[in-house]
UniProtKB/TrEMBL annotation:
Domain Glycosyl hydrolase family 32 N-terminal: from-to ranges: 48-340
Organism domain of life: Eukaryota
Protein's name in the database: Beta-fructofuranosidase
Gene3D superfamilies named in the record: Exo-inulinase, domain 1 (2.60.120.560), Glycosyl hydrolase domain, family 43 (2.115.10.20)
Keywords: Glycosidase, Hydrolase, Signal
Organism of this sequence: Kwoniella shivajii
Xref: PROSITE patterns: GLYCOSYL_HYDROL_F32
A Pfam family: Glyco_hydro_32N
Amino acid sequence: MRQTLSSLLIFGWIWLSETLAQSTSSTPVPTGVAIQGDYTGPYRPRVHYSPPKGFMNDPNGLFKDNNGTWHMYYQYNPTDVVAGNQHWGHATSPDLYHWTNQPIALFPPNSTSGVFSGSAVLDPNNTSGFFPNTTEGVVAIYTLNTPTKQTQELAYSFDGGYTFTPYSGNPVLDVNSNQFRDPKVIRYDDTWVMVIAFASEYVIGIYTSSDLKEWSHASNISHIDLLGIQYECPNLVSLPISNSSETGWVLTISVNPGAPLGGSITEYFAGEFNGTHFKPHDGATRLSNFAKDDYAGQFFYDQPISIGWASNWGYTNTVPTASEGWRSAMTLPRKNSLVDTGIRGWEMVQEIYDVSPILSQQLSFTQNLANTSTEASFNNGLYFDMNITFPEKVTFSSYASMNFTFSTNSTGESVKGGYILAGSTPYTAWLDRGKTSGFDSPLFTDKFSVSQVSPAKRITGVMDRSLFEVYVDDGAVVGTMDVYPTEPLTKFTISTGDLPEGAQITFSAWEIQDTWA
Ligand SMILES: *[C@@H]1O[C@H](CO)[C@@H](O)[C@H](O)[C@H]1NC(C)=O
Ligand SMILES: *[C@@H]1O[C@H](CO)[C@@H](O)[C@H](O)[C@H]1NC(C)=O
Ligand SMILES: *[C@@H]1O[C@H](CO)[C@@H](O)[C@H](O)[C@H]1NC(C)=O
Ligand SMILES: *[C@@H]1O[C@H](CO)[C@@H](O)[C@H](O)[C@H]1NC(C)=O
Ligand SMILES: *[C@@H]1O[C@H](CO)[C@@H](O)[C@H](O)[C@H]1NC(C)=O
Ligand SMILES: *[C@@H]1O[C@H](CO)[C@@H](O)[C@H](O)[C@H]1NC(C)=O
Ligand SMILES: *[C@@H]1O[C@H](CO)[C@@H](O)[C@H](O)[C@H]1NC(C)=O
Ligand SMILES: *[C@@H]1O[C@H](CO)[C@@H](O)[C@H](O)[C@H]1NC(C)=O
Ligand SMILES: *[C@@H]1O[C@H](CO)[C@@H](O)[C@H](O)[C@H]1NC(C)=O
Ligand SMILES: *[C@@H]1O[C@H](CO)[C@@H](O)[C@H](O)[C@H]1NC(C)=O
Ligand SMILES: *[C@@H]1O[C@H](CO)[C@@H](O)[C@H](O)[C@H]1NC(C)=O
Ligand SMILES: *[C@@H]1O[C@H](CO)[C@@H](O)[C@H](O)[C@H]1NC(C)=O
């Protein structure tokens, strides 16, 4: 009897495994049609992009076409809610918030390879020779991952980035390495410049090309500051300097694992670039985010605009949004610039890109929130903004602070944040996702904070279902945090206390739109 039962169980297990294996391997990946998604689930962000179904990670190939349409591709597993089976998903938007899902743009050649991260460029002058008949040619430059190697390949598009043809001369760059990936290409004078990661050697390689097909090694930058375990997704771009007509250079490197707070994070270096060599202005490590959910950010081709992946490799494959058939969202779009802060050197400022298309009705307006509080109820999500001024040469009482809380209707869960003006940690922004019970994991840290040299002048926050972002001083510091309450957060309160005489805080909150409705 026991034997029979165990045979039956074993037989059943084999049958089930085979059925599952077959159904997985035979799950067709749609070609030529956009994958449909159900965007109504309680964890679905309303204004942050998330994929229709399956698993998404790094943004790829970001560019804006001549008609003003923003194109975003992304690392995409269309057949499962964990990383793997990498394709390039595709979405387009007129404003970086309202996205239309497009058919998958790049497919791996077979089941043992993946189309890994990369970038896209516009080639109006036919430098590549791919475009005999159009000035709207787009070339994608990406890593093909196979079991033995990572090589760099091209695919070109005649129709503005909707469909691509792989180049028959691929690969265009092969150094016989299985840790060589994520090419990001820019135009510098009349050449193409690529930065790429020798991931496990802590080297960012710089290559140049006249036609995107033949690449020459120009220089290496290695072992700069935070190492982590691997370097990924470098970007080297020119950004405007705030309040100036000048531009400066920034190199970003994404590090995984081994971020100071665990898992993955992005560091950046402002510096000088002369077409072949990059030199940071100083030896300091600066992180692009003070929380944990902002990785592999990429800049749009020839634009100071960027988007990051709002998750962390430490837990991304286990977050509870899988119950809605998807995992991972992107950060808000950001407009970036460089600021010379004086003694602290050059910093990157990541302002939220024009939010006017996503603001719905105004929920609250307070002319002066000093020493008082206000609250609001919301459905989709909430955007708040506060401009803060203090009298000159002010001294703060040791309890001077501002706190905000988002809470659920009935479960008692909440997400909190605030700003400490005085005491032992002055000028500190903080976030706390610990009072939510939808998810737990060793690396899913609860609390984050960052200190500033002087008190914040502006604090802007966006609560968007399973994502919260705070931008202090127009993005001088940014915190991006995934949150998983078991019921939607629908109530907001903010209070400030013990502020000095003469403090002035203009506060406003809006309901955000559901961009998928
Ligand atoms: C899959 O494609 C890659 C890249 O073209 C190739 O190197 C590899 O041999 C292929 N594998 C199989 C099993 O065909
Ligand atoms: C294309 O050529 C024109 C004319 O030479 C030049 O002004 C322009 O910068 C070129 N564009 C690119 C992307 O190289
Ligand atoms: C683009 O380059 C290809 C290859 O060099 C060439 O055959 C074609 O005439 C070029 N087209 C234009 C419009 O320059
Ligand atoms: C341009 O030429 C390519 C290659 O011959 C062709 O596939 C494509 O359809 C043409 N595009 C236009 C707009 O004529
Ligand atoms: C821009 O719009 C025109 C007119 O609608 C269209 O013909 C063209 O293909 C579009 N270009 C791109 C790059 O989408
Ligand atoms: C650049 O770094 C790579 C990876 O470590 C190395 O293989 C290559 O030799 C270096 N090139 C030069 C010129 O140093
Ligand atoms: C830029 O100028 C504005 C207006 O004068 C000022 O409020 C702001 O602090 C300046 N920003 C920087 C980074 O200097
Ligand atoms: C760029 O900088 C490197 C390193 O300082 C130098 O060797 C090279 O000559 C410079 N190139 C140009 C075009 O100035
Ligand atoms: C929260 O409670 C309010 C008032 O009782 C109700 O109108 C709303 O639908 C509830 N929202 C959720 C998400 O349960
Ligand atoms: C903000 O929260 C902190 C920590 O709970 C508390 O010490 C402080 O008094 C609060 N401030 C206000 C204005 O509520
Ligand atoms: C806020 O309250 C404190 C005492 O709690 C008081 O000293 C201060 O003047 C008040 N500030 C404002 C702007 O009313
Ligand atoms: C804060 O200041 C910015 C820039 O001056 C302005 O656009 C925004 O509307 C202000 N927000 C509030 C709540 O006053």
